[in-house]
Amino acid sequence: MFSNSGRLIPWPYRIAYGSERAYDCDVLVIGGGIGGAWAAIGAARCGARVIVLEKAATERSGAGGAGVDHWQWAADNPCSGVTPEELAQALIDNHGGYRGGHSTYIQCASAWETLLEMEAMGGKIRDTADEFRGAEFRDEKTRLLFAYDYTNRFVLRVWGHNYKPLLREELRRLGVRVMDRVAVTSLLTEGGKQGTRAVGATAVHVRTGAFIVVRAKATVLATSRPQRIWTFSSELRGISTFRPPSVSGSGYAIAYRAGAEFTMMEKSMRSPFGSPYAYPPYGSGNAINTWYPCTIVDANGKEVPWVDANGKVLSSVAERCRPCAGQKFFIMGGGSSSQPHPGLPQYLGPRPIPDLEARMLAGDFTPPFYADLAGMPEMERKAIWGIMVGNEGKTRIPVMRTYMASGFDPGRDMLQTYDFLRGHGMREPVLPQERTFGEQGACGGMLVDWDLMSSLPGLFAAGDLIFGGQDHSHAAASGRYAGARAALFARELSFSELNDGQVRDEKHRVYSPLSAPEHGPDWKELNAASARVMQNYCSEVKNAQTLALAETWLRDLEANEAPRVRAENPHELMRVLEVHDLLTCCRMIVAACEARKASSTHLHFKRLDYPEMDPPEWHKWVVIRSDGDGVQVSDRPIAFWGDFESHYRSRHAQNLAAWTQEPPTAARRRATAAT
Amino acid sequence: MQDNPRVYATPNRPTPGNPVRFDPARCDGCNRCVTVCLEDILIPNPEKGRPPLVLHPEECWYCGPCVDDCPIPGAIRLNHPLQQRVRWKRKDGGHFRV
């Protein structure tokens, strides 16, 4: 990097390589995104001393830091037509059983309760300005706005663009120690042994390079899911991931190395969000999620019909938001995803006709297609190009403000779609090897119990990293719950002594890229190489031979190339360590693919050597854990979490009783009175 | 060979190279965007009061808090790569783009 005068710019932050700082806390939260921030709040409200380690800045970090438009699966809200039990079971059944029962139920049972706390922190959750008075999706009494199924009302439309800064304020109010720009590199375990209690973590400051050691009685991991596993574009890196590209699966890698169990790691799917040829998410015309239920028209203005689960053509926009004959309620809709989840007809929402591609080729429709915002009823248009695009992460500025600054007028203009050519939802067609691990739908993650604790005592999980869960309200509700469980766990324990050898070895590993030779590959080249191995040997086409080669070549990269990747400054050091973690994640995925000796529709999983789809004896969770240099495989029955209500209720009551700190509203009122 | 001080031997720049653009007349170098950036792609300008430098343009996630949280309207704006610019059609005529 050269300055305007052509001189090299010195590193702008004080370098502190090798310096070591140590901290103690009751609950350590790793990752300060939505799940981590709520976990820290949940723990601090129990009176625990909490530290948050966050690789970016907690004020805006994480997949939901830039905003949120839908508060999903809030079956506990006063307008909901479904119970938490009904909705959680439907979500699980709709994934063929492969959705995490614990955290899905926690989300369905407490998303609304969590959102009320967001409101108490100052977040807007109601149409207080009466902008949508009389709209079909508004409850006049509570002024809440709903999305998708207007009859059953369990997904809320919210003004979430500033929720993350408000969470940061709440952490400050509760006295949580937030350490930003600090990347965690390892979990410390009792006696320094794999598979024992989690007793702390090591980390590195990504601006100064200082080494940080934290001793904790309990730890909550909240680092989301690995991106950049199959697709990596060195020059369009940021565009190639739906979650932030720095989400490198470090939580997965460090917990796996520490001996924690993971499940559903074999699931992956095609996703154009992982393609460098994609457009900004929700930035082209579409009809799903943020844009549901937008009308799509062809080049001549001919409307693409919508159909319900029975195949009945719907004659009005209003009908797109109602369950069809024979359905009690529906889940989302719009025909999302380029590799649609099979789902169940009883929960299938309305969508544009699924055979659009064939009908276009037959001459019924003329490309290109457009999202006809201008032709939508006024309330729906104002909701989409207003609350939704105006508050969803990565759309408020990149789409709404940027497009309008270029002259886009939702009342006159139709935004082009680049995806309906293939009859799919919002996404452009992608190649089979352009896969993502977990950008859409429930994906693999850390195995947890009803305390959201992993197989390692003292190690808890929040948000995306929990197996089979997803989205913003899931991260919030599961984080809030996990934080409380971790704080209660910590109450019973004293600190465990750290193992000096474990800390010393990790410190050596962390700094080794600084002394790597000067002419090795850089971190981007290594990332692209690991992605290529995954594309070639662990993609849509795989069998025992390809998976064995994947393992061989990943180990080759780890042993022979990774040590040659050099870091010139703390930022690069962070990126190199991320790729080391990604390589661990790749090996976890390969091990899980090897362990499942059957194909599965629900897992988007095909083994050429075991072609039978979903044989009953494989209808179970495949679980992996690291054991020295090898992998231990076990399994769990499909609904191993048991009864929702009885497991949840007692713990939830304990959490409520433990939250002795003053809630945000009372504190806010007092602060206002004082001024 | 004649010396030409305005021509340098430089490597290719990373592309896309301008994920955010600063208006130097408005930006007062408060570095708020440097603080909130998720990917840490910006660094403070060595010259105080000047716009931050985009050190790692190709790492941008195009998420927008740098713009949303900037205290001075118009001091920073998001700049999509050319291949990412979406098109639209106006009902009463004309085609446009970001």
Number of discrete helical segments of chain A:
15
Nearest-integer average pLDDT of chain B? 93
Total strands of chain A: 22
CA-CA gap between termini of chain A: 48 Å
Work out the helicity level of chain A.
Answer: 25-40%
Rounded to the nearest angstrom, the distance between the terminal CA atoms of chain B is 45 Å
Q: What letter string, H or E per element, gives the SSE order of chain B?
A: EHEEHEEE
How would you summarize the topology of this molecule?
The complex is a heterodimer of chains A (675) and B (98).
Chain A: E1 20-30, H1 34-44, E2 50-53, E3 70-71, H2 84-94, H3 101-120, E4 145-146, E5 156-157, H4 163-173, E6 177-179, E7 182-189, E8 198-205, E9 211-221, H5 250-258, E10 262-263, E11 269-270, E12 296-297, E13 306-307, E14 313-314, E15 351-352, H6 356-361, E16 370-371, H7 378-391, H8 396-405, E17 413-416, E18 435-436, E19 445-446, E20 459-461, H9 472-491, H10 500-511, H11 523-537, H12 544-561, H13 570-595, E21 620-627, E22 630-637, H14 644-658, H15 664-674
Parallel strand pairs in A: 1-2, 1-9, 2-6, 9-20
Antiparallel strand pairs in A: 3-5, 4-5, 7-8, 8-9, 10-19, 10-21, 11-18, 12-16, 13-14, 13-15, 16-17, 21-22
Helix pairs in contact in A: 1-4, 1-9, 2-3, 3-9, 5-13, 7-8, 9-14, 11-12, 11-13, 12-13
Chain B: E1 20-22, H1 32-36, E2 42-43, E3 53-54, H2 65-68, E4 76-78, E5 87-90, E6 95-97
Antiparallel strand pairs in B: 1-4, 2-3, 5-6
